Amino acid sequence: MQRLRHASLFWHAFLMFWGAMALIVACGMLLTASLAWYRFASLDGLNPANLTRDASQVARTQGVAGLERWLRAMHNNYAALEIYVLDADGGDLLNRRVPSRLQQAAEDHRRLMNGLGLESAEHWDTVVPTQESMRISWWDPQPLSLPDGRALLMLFLPLEFSHWDALSSPPVLLALLLFALSITAPFCWLLMRHVTRPLDQLRDVAQALAQGRLGTRPPETLTKRKDELGRFARDFDAMAARLQSLVDTRELLLRNMAHELRSPLARLQLALELARRKDATQDTQFDRIEREGKRLEGLVGRTLDLARMGAMPPPTTPLELGELVDEVVRDACFEAGGRNIAIEWRERARAVVLGNEASLSSAVENVLRNALRHAPTGSVISLSLRVQDHKAILEIADQGPGVPEADLPNLFEPFYRVAANSVNGTGAGLGLTIARAAVHAHAGAIHARNAKPQGLCVTITLPQA
């Protein structure tokens, strides 16, 4: 039921189909009612008693020939009424096929008359209605007598639908088919237009993305739709945005990495040239070559870590975030103790998240090491973990110099360094970028703000399991 309730395209097709059917049925009923009312109105003013008296008088005075003329005149003037006059053998005077129900009524009437002893025509005048007689029904057979004494029986068939047999003729069937097509074709066109137009728009967007125009997005009118195509367009939009973000990030990462590699490579080349002189500074140059090699190794390693974070599948393992942070804090305390920096928990709540232990540990460790790098000697780094709106919120705050407000939006970009803190920025500029990639891989968010009175506070928000 949940799927059917959200299957808007199904309901569109269902309602359009039954709407077309309802319109066809309504038009058919209206046409039928109009014809029936016309035929019913054509009986207005006719009275079976009057018709019986007229037929009886014609039969007595003009015989069979007069009755035939009278029947043809009635047939031509009143399309909604059929009058049959049957002889003793049950045949109609005009040689028409008599409906079976009328034949049965005639036989029942003859048996009744025979039972009353009125089987001969000379007795039938006693049952022919007069002006004073009671009103007779359309459905009662009426006896007639000819001048030669033969007995006839007249039967009425009001609202006769046999004339509608024309509906089965090929021209009429073709007209009805064209009418049905004229009703259903617009509905089918609207339904197909409702589906194919968004698909054409998405195909155009896909072709533009394939050609490298990564900024192309589905039109807003499509993403605002509430049906399956609207949800598909929104997912497509998110996919395109994610694709553009990945490509832009990779391009930026390549440019920055090329820039970062250029400096240590230049220093390596210079140190090699100086080492070739084999003078008193040779050992110093070898030490410099070793440092630059380690720097290059660290840069490549952290770049690979960043790439792995971006390609990490959605995590499915439940983790207690407080225990994970405990382990990171214990490792960081060794480094903090050497600089007389205290690391303390101010608040800790129990929070279980779905995560990858290695990547989450790396994210927390990178943020904590960044705080250690900029925290002054003798200061305190505080951590707190709380739960709010089904989200785990981890805050790591130091008492360092903080970051200029203009630099806060770029703090998590690859290789970005704050100019005011460059003296302490000995890293590769990828720690916070790796942290952001790991948090985003866990469907979380990370941001930084300046603490009061000083320092930087980094907040990591993760959804609870």
**CATH structural architecture of the largest domain:** 2-Layer Sandwich
Shape: rod-shaped
Question: In angstroms, what is the radius of gyration?
Answer: 49 Å
Range of strand content: 5-15%
Mean pLDDT over all positions: 77
The CATH topology name of the largest domain reads: Heat Shock Protein 90
Largest sheet: 5 strands, mixed
- Alpha-beta content class: alpha+beta
Helix-residue proportion: 40-55%
Strand line-up across the major sheet: 5-7-8-10-9
Low-confidence stretches: 1-6, 121-134, 161-166
N-to-C order of helices and strands: HHHEHEEHHHHEHEEHEEHEE
The N- and C-terminal alpha carbons lie at a distance of: 27 Å
Under the CATH scheme, which class of the largest domain? Alpha Beta
- CATH H-level superfamily title of the largest domain: Histidine kinase-like ATPase, C-terminal domain
Task: Note down, in words, how this protein is organized.
By secondary structure, the protein is an alpha+beta fold. The protein has four domains: 2-42 and 166-193, no CATH class; 48-158, Beta-Lactamase (2-Layer Sandwich), CATH 3.30.450; 214-311, Helix Hairpins; 315-463, Histidine kinase-like ATPase, C-terminal domain (Heat Shock Protein 90), CATH 3.30.565. The protein contains eleven helices and ten strands. A five-stranded mixed beta sheet has the order 5-7-8-10-9. A three-stranded antiparallel beta sheet has the order 1-3-2, covered by helices on one side. The longest helix is centred in the middle third of the chain and has 48 residues, at 228-275. The two termini are 27 Å apart.
